[in-house]
Design brief:
The protein is mainly β. 4% of the residues lie in helices and 67% in strands. Among the domains are: 119 residues, lipopolysaccharide transport protein A fold, CATH 2.60.450.10; 138 residues, lipopolysaccharide transport protein A fold (Sandwich).
Length: 494
């Protein structure tokens, strides 16, 4: 009784399933041929053949109709049309109505309102409304052309998923990747995995990214890089506007200038390609890797411009510089890479060769990766500490210090020259020498004052050390600020 009941249930289930499977409906054929002896399993349809299954219209020049198994093999000028969502053509069609599975072979062409797909063979799963190919395929869109070895087309969403050797050819750009989703309605390329985008003037690398070919906007992440002939930019993420050649890099930004041999890191960067201008905010730090040691710079804002082949770096607000043999601070700084001239503005301070230097503005010139000259342009004063009580001092209207091997060799003082130097014997300070002269030159040897040359008759007063009064110890505008001296503020280069 149980066996009989089970048989009835199985038979009933099969009957229900068979009722749910629709038969292929032949709409038209010019001629029908039946060969019951040699080919009893199919009918041969010839001439203007059309048939329908599940609201999908299929046409061809001829076909084999396997009515019992509900299959069709179609030949020549094959076309599959499903409402307005799909128009698929090729040389040959294998269609299984029971499984709703089709295979089109030879000169395959898929058309919709958005684009065209060309390949040699596609498989069409009508249950899931997806179409896929496992050999070379090519998509032609209004804005770009895409090739890949493998691809999937989601018919309802009008999305393509490409795999293996994906190449996108666009207007002045080419994309190379291994996996990409293309949303054809919104013209959006979504890259997954290592990808390279070649533009007119640079290359972009990322491991995840989105590029919209309609509005020319892009977002790159995961080891995102922009590589140009002049520099390489790295960041956690990069936004790019191809229309105006603008990029914005966010978090862990690193810019390597391969031409001028420097590196800068920061939290955020903006790149204006047409203006050849770069702005870095959020704690920018610069590295100039010289042969002997590294020159560091930092500030609140970094700007790099190139105008008429004159490359200039600017730093603004809370600027500090550091090198093993000198350091400095100021409100703003300009570094001309063309002539190696650094200018410090707004209350600049500099420490070099045991001297603190202050002036309304300070300029210094690099030569062979060391400071060659220091120009103190207005109200300069140089101070060197002897001990906690006494300081050697030089002051004037303008001063120029000449350097050799990171040591001051001589100083030219122009206008209102004044100096205080303490005299010493082998053990003790014995006096204070005050000199006043409009112009004078101080020569140094091994960091010590060697001699002074006067351009006109000086006022020179020497006071025994025990007779020095407090007012004699300091020149006007004396201000010792050693506590503000920058130290090596960044020890590990990224």
């Amino acid at each position: 009784m149980r066996i009989k009941l089970l048989f009835i249930l199985i038979f009933t289930s099969i009957s229900v399933l068979s009722q749910n499977v629709k038969k292929i409906k032949i709409l038209n054929t010019d001629n029908t041929f039946i060969n019951k002896k040699n080919h009893p399993e199919y009918w041969r349809l010839v001439g203007n053949v059309s048939f329908n299954h599940n609201n999908t219209l299929m046409t061809c020049d001829s076909a084999y109709h396997y009515s019992k198994t509900n299959k069709i093999v179609a030949f020549s000028n094959v076309n599959i049309n499903k409402s307005d969502t799909l128009n698929l053509s090729g040389d040959k069609l294998y269609y299984d109505a029971n499984s709703k599975y089709a295979k089109v072979v030879g000169n395959v062409k898929l058309e919709n309102n958005q684009n065209k797909l060309y390949t040699n063979q596609v498989n069409y799963d009508m249950n899931e409304d997806i179409l896929y190919y496992d050999s070379f395929g090519e998509i032609i869109d209004k804005n770009q052309r895409i090739t890949s070895k493998k691809g999937v087309y989601q018919i309802n969403e009008k999305n393509y998923i490409f795999r293996d050797s994906v190449i996108v050819f666009g207007d002045n750009y080419t994309i190379y990747t291994q996996k990409m989703t293309y949303k054809s309605i919104v013209k959006e390329n979504i890259m997954n995995g290592p990808s390279k985008i070649i533009l007119k003037s640079n290359i972009i690398y990322c491991e995840n990214g989105i590029f919209n070919s309609k509005n020319n906007l892009a977002y790159f992440s995961d080891n995102a890089q922009i590589i140009s002939k002049n520099n390489t930019i790295k960041a956690d993420s990069i936004f790019y506007n191809k229309t105006n050649n603008y990029a914005k890099a966010i978090n862990n930004v690193i810019i390597i200038d391969t031409i001028n041999n420097f590196k800068v890191i920061g939290g955020q960067a903006e790149l204006f390609e047409d203006e050849d201008k770069t702005i870095i905010s959020k704690n920018p730090i610069l590295y100039f890797p010289f042969e002997q040691d590294t020159l560091f710079m930092k500030g609140d804002k970094f700007v790099h411009t190139n105008t008429n082949n004159k490359k200039i770096i600017q730093l603004f607000n809370n600027v500090e510089i550091f090198k093993e043999n000198f350091s400095g601070k100021c409100d703003s700084l300009s570094y001309s890479l063309s002539d190696s001239l650094i200018k410090m503005y707004k209350k600049p301070l500099m420490w070099i060769d045991d001297y603190q230097i202050s002036s309304d503005s300070i300029e210094f010139l690099f030569f062979d990766e060391t400071i060659n000259k220091i120009f103190m342009n207005s109200n300069p004063i140089m101070i060197s500490q002897i001990d906690s009580l006494d300081f050697n001092q030089i002051k004037g209207k303008k001063m120029t210090a000449f350097m050799k091997k990171n040591q001051i060799k001589f100083i030219n003082v122009i206008g209102n020259g004044e100096s205080i130097y303490y005299l010493k014997d082998k053990k003790n300070k014995i006096g204070l020498n005050y000199i006043q002269s409009s112009n004078l030159t101080l020569h140094f040897n091994d960091k010590k004052l060697n001699n002074v040359i006067y351009k006109n008759m000086p006022i020179s007063v020497t006071t025994p050390y025990n007779d020095i009064i407090e007012s004699q110890r300091f020149l006007k505008d004396f201000n010792w600020k050693v506590k503000e001296k920058p130290s090596k503020f960044y020890t590990t280069e990224q």
